């Protein structure tokens, strides 16, 4: 059986490599590498948005939560759905701004300090997200080849795949690989769920094997715990640089808006299917007496509970989805270092050839940093929420204000970015736990960091001069 799984995973890796290489010849300029020449149609955008969003955070972290607690895991996915509904109105504005990165946008709307702090926040958050994709890929390789590949060795192999695929052709290769991955994952998961549900005796058999709390809105969590899943995911979605880069890559504002509709439909369906697959996998594990790692439940179920080819395809789809998300979240901070640091401050007159060389070097270096983090991470869910919180508190408020507030200014934005990042990074320190009441110190960082960041944004902006008209004009479709 392992030979079949090896063949399927190998075929997927080869296909992705071919797709990347076919896009290589189309990459001639900085715009080609960073935003695919602003040429992506709605169909490609739908699948690249879907593939970049649903990765290890859902397939491992969300599945782990569903395995342990049931439908309450949908609060994490639900945060993304709520964010998507709001993004429908943001997407055309993002495309109109015609930027390359979020820090690029921050300097245009605020100032250079906002750009630099934005780069720092993205680097913290996105390399953390990339790191747990490497964990997920390593777990899958170890499941397929348990006597040959350990989970840690699998992380090294996964890092090599991701670095090579991402470096080849930038956004163009990432986006078109995502079409292949998105189609494969969607089809296989939709087939696998009814097959597995039938094997446990349908909904009644499925429901009878798990605790009743697994089927209630909050499970055995409190409302506050559910909101600590919902809010970081929602705010990450609203401020997600990888998403905005896709909008910057769209052919037109219309393509950006149409893509969001498809993305909403696909995300709601796949996030729900993932949670149900994890719960069915739990039932099958109970029946067989197995004790899989909760975060590996989808891959474990594909390996042990599905017919050979379908199981191999589902395993391959999960593996490909993880590669896709890692590609997106590795590529995104690399573009920050190139566009927002190298081109902006070090070599503003650099040729396209030099920029492409430096871009690929940044992908390699950040990939190595993400691998280091992966080798020192325990819980994928905890790492995901940490990454989401940094981004949600530090960047999402100032990004939304750029599009919807003419009064917020550079001083407010800089203060908010700094405060949100600082509180998130140091919230779990001994200082916080020793000097704050336990009722606060035991909470996740999202609400303290978000509240302080928003207060800084509003209060500091109100106490200082409003921005110049030319700073806000393009974001509101006005003449400067």
TrEMBL record:
Q: Where is this chain primarily localised?
A: membrane
State where the protein is found: Cell membrane
Recorded hits in InterPro entries, A to Z, give:
Na/Glc_symporter_sf (IPR038377), Na/solute_symporter (IPR001734), Sodium:Solute_Symporter (IPR050277)
**Any matching Pfam family:** SSF
Q: Which key words tag this protein in UniProt? A: Cell membrane, Ion transport, Membrane, Sodium, Sodium transport, Symport, Transmembrane, Transmembrane helix, Transport
Q: How does it sit in the membrane?
A: Multi-pass membrane protein
Q: What transmembrane ranges does the database entry give?
A: 6-24, 36-54, 74-91, 116-136, 156-176, 183-203, 223-239, 260-285, 297-320, 354-372, 384-404, 411-433, 445-464
**Reactions that this protein is recorded to catalyse:** L-proline(in) + Na(+)(in) = L-proline(out) + Na(+)(out)
- Report the family membership: Belongs to the sodium:solute symporter (SSF) (TC 2.A.21) family.
Q: What is this protein called?
A: Sodium:solute symporter family protein
Whose protein is this, by species?
A: Alloacidobacterium dinghuense
